[in-house]
Amino acid sequence: MADSTPAEEAPPSTVAQKKDHKEKELYPMSAWKYDAFLHTFSVLVDLFFREVHPRGAWRVPRTGPILFVAAPHANQFVDGLVLQRTLKNEAQRRVGLLIAEKSVHGFIGWGSRQTGSVPVGRAQDKAKPASGVIYLPDPINDPTLVRGVGTDFEKDAEVGGMIFLPSTKGQSGSSIDISKIIGPEEVRIKRPFKGKVPLQQLTGRDDIDENGNFTNKELTGPKDGYEGTKFKLAPHIDQTEVYKAVFNRLRTGGCIGIFPEGGSHDRTELLPLKAGVAIMALGTLAEDPDCGLQIVPVGMNYFHAHKFRSRAVVEFGAPFQIPNDIVEKYKNNQRRDAIGQTLDMVHQALSAVTVSAPDYDTLMCIQAARRLYNTGKKLPLPMVVELNRRLAVGFSKYKDDPRIIDLMDNVKDYNKQLHYLNIKDHQVSYAKMTIPTVIFTLLYRIIKMLVLSIGVIPGLVLFAPVFIATKYISHKKAKEALAASSVKIQGRDVMATWKLLVAMAFTPVLYNLYSVLFCIKVYQDRLWGRVPEWVPFWLFFFGGWVVFPAITFAALRFGEVGMDILKSLRPLVLCLSPTSGYSIHKLRERRAELSDKVVKVINDLGPDMYEDFEQARLVSDPFRADGLLDQAGLPKTEPTPPDSPHLSRKNTTRSSQAIPRNESFSNIGSVGIFATRPPSRSRSRSSSSGGGFGSGGFPVSGFTVLDTHEGFNEASNKIRAAMRQRGQLRRRKSGFSSDDDASEGA
After folding, report:
1. 8-state DSSP, 430
2. What is the reported pTM?
3. Which of the 8 DSSP states describes residue 210?
């Protein structure tokens, strides 16, 4: 197959246009290099993550230009690999990513070139501490004037460059573009600084409310005696070549992927989106209004993103197009308004596929509330994400409601008790066991863990140097990234990347060393005399490259189950202690009361959020009407007949249509044109989410009728598109292909 760009995915009518643009492409994508790279390095994703579940992949258009906007950017380089792999496997689309220019070197740079990535220079990467301090001399009457003390703006700054304020109080530092340099100690910025923290940094005043407004209007200057704040300056970054490459790729029917937050981070909420994503979309449509550009939001939802063998859900939202009136505004020099409206659309779309919380403690409370609400059930991983999202939206809307405040306080207290006992929420149910049952379960699990250790210990010993190196270097790089960033909290967003990079570098060296030592041992005594003289040494070298990785992989699989068993031993031991056992029993009673409270609050506030609350439930009401509990402190539930689903999708409205039918119901998920889950997902072990749909004792309902006109039209369009694709495939096989098909196979 000849080198080609994603132009092969556009309609045949644009083939001639694509050939014209192909020669001009700055960062060309080679299809075979792209596929070979992903095929080779996708094994890293399978090794690092226990499960990566794609959700909503059926939404991704199979043809035409697409701008993928992905967030949150929680893993520095792993996010890009996961996104590219998922799109290729699930939607057969190749996507060129925007990558920071400072990263285009070494292995990352080589990999980015194989996949047609576009390097982007970022101001924050080139920001340097400047001399002197700055402040706002008149923040009320002239908020765009910035004055310095001991500065030299004429030498150090430039028009179009940026001023960066330091991060403080767990918040990232603000940044503003420079519009005019007045003198060595004065500049004018494009727009005023917003928010309480940056205004405090620049004025030293305490009379600023949460919205960034000054309460004392009589004082127009900074606080008396305030000297100013330190700052950084970044030069102007010319992005002309970047936009040219993006426009060309999109106009020719290709795909571009961007993380619009501007950089990776480990925060629990979305960072403010950069204007670049809007400029790319609007600029493409301004040059070619008929190109059919669509924007697809992608939620990168991780569970412990930096940890080995964690889980993830990659969720694709509904594609949308930018209205013509916004494009006309952009073309008619109303760019600020057009860009702002586009960014609002992108942010709303991303909010529908991500879980966002104001801080880590709130996120932990939301996840705890989901477990308390979903008592006794194992949910599929995508449904766990959806429940978290809905609870996060509910908290954001009702965070000042006394019921929510009281509930959050109780949940925080419950989490503290779990942390004190060092047990997990699902392990509280162990308290219902009798002492003989606890003893038997403990002994059984210890024996099982000892048996598994037979397969774990050899591989653990062999791979120990890599484990030690990855942990040490990843933590060191996290500290360096944290020191150089104004948005990171602990620098965990770079840990997964460095764990993979270090493992890739150290593992071949380690296996090669083991193979050489193996050959030396054979040379010395023919492996204690067990190897015949006629067997060549090179066979043992290559045999070592088979045996040692196999031992390591077996240790990985056995160790995965063994760690789950090991984590379950502590609560069993605590149950045997009179003091701790009593604490767990009291905690179980507390959990039952709190679960009842969570359900009551959700049932009270849910109908206010969704008109179709009862019909749109992801899970049925965990409690019966009488609210009785069983002996374990769990809600009594009526036995569900096989044909009686827990979930109902009848009479659904917009709020419930966020759950794709083909991924929420088992029967239609098996149909080829609708299925998006790879068959290998069932291999996930010890899944907290219960594995695949319908597993873990969680019955799901069948596919209900298409009860809305829009739903019927959408399904009809999907079926027609699938039939067209199949027709094209038959024509290719029979040799009667279009020009576009021919160019693809060239």
Report:
1. G
2. 0.71
3. T
